[in-house]
Write a structure and sequence with these properties.
about 280 residues, alpha/beta, Alpha-Beta Plaits, Rossmann fold, 2 domains, seven-stranded mixed β-sheet, four-stranded antiparallel β-sheet, 14 strands, globular
Length: about 280
């Protein structure tokens, strides 16, 4: 693996929505790391996988609704910890759950989670992760067999274990997320989390009391039947990774498969829904 990276530094207006779309589109390319900045994002790709026309099919760059400028540079030996340290602030969810990097001081929060985010999603800063944490904080998870689908950093699986869930499966299709989830589970002394690399095809024949799926609308809709099939009677399904305008489509998919809507959290146009079987 090359240690030389090409770093792209984007300034984006409007920032929030533009960053989300740009990260999603760059993620389809060979970009493997994203760091949010005050004015946009920085994105990194190994030089071996880079070409001058790598941004050619990135549609948001042509979209007149967004103003996006960028520079790029060659970077040797990226120190990811240093990059994250510059950009990663600890977060607090409802005074109960504190998410921090190893270089932050411990607090007295009931649930203190240490995440080395590296290049994975799921630091708790994103609205969807924040709301999923809120859902889990409200839920009795003791002894519940739990699935964290699209686990990213495994932050939600880690919180589930801290709240008494077991056993827990954490699944992500991305190799970096898979490796990072294993590290983070160990870092938080988790004993009941099994991490797998793959997609919903790994769910065949499995059964869960709680399923957490923070992915994106299209994958959720595509895999919904498998989630419902895996859910035990009275089981809970938490869904996030989509916008308020996507609620009717997601809800229809769930209720048509026998699930009942319970509640939702909304945050900056993002939403996290709770259903029961």
């Amino acid at each position: 693996m090359s240690n030389i990276y090409i770093g792209y530094h984007f300034t984006i207006e409007p920032l929030e929505l533009g960053s989300e779309i740009l990260i999603a589109e760059l993620g389809e390319k060979a970009f493997e790391s994203f760091i949010e900045t005050e004015t946009g994002i920085s994105a990194f790709v190994q030089k071996d996988l880079w070409s001058e026309n790598i941004l050619e099919d990135i549609q948001i760059l042509e979209n007149p609704e967004f103003k996006i400028d960028y520079t790029f540079e060659e970077i040797e030996q990226v120190n990811w910890n240093e990059e994250w340290e510059k950009n990663f602030e600890p977060i607090d969810v409802d005074g109960k759950c504190h998410v921090r990097a190893p270089f932050h001081e411990k607090t007295n929060a009931e649930y203190d989670i240490v995440i080395e985010p590296k290049m994975s999603f799921g630091t708790g800063h994103h609205e969807t992760t924040h709301m999923m944490i809120q859902h889990l904080l409200e839920t009795d998870l003791v002894g519940k067999k739990t699935l964290d689908m699209g686990c990213g950093t495994a932050i939600l699986a880690i919180l589930a274990e801290m709240k008494g869930a077991q056993p827990i499966d954490a699944i992500d299709i991305d190799n970096w997320c898979y490796l990072n989830s294993i590290e983070n589970a160990e870092r938080n002394n988790c004993k009941h989390i099994s991490v797998y690399e793959g997609d919903a095809s790994l769910l065949d024949g499995k059964k869960y009391d709680v399923i957490i799926a923070n992915i994106n609308r299209n994958i959720l809709l595509n895999d919904m039947q498998q989630y419902v099939a895996c859910l035990n009677e009275n089981g809970i399904l938490f869904l996030s990774g989509f916008y308020t305008e996507d609620i009717p489509m997601i809800s229809e998919s769930c209720t048509s498969k026998g699930l009942t809507y319970v509640k939702q959290f909304e945050r900056n146009n993002w939403v996290a829904l709770k259903f029961v079987k």
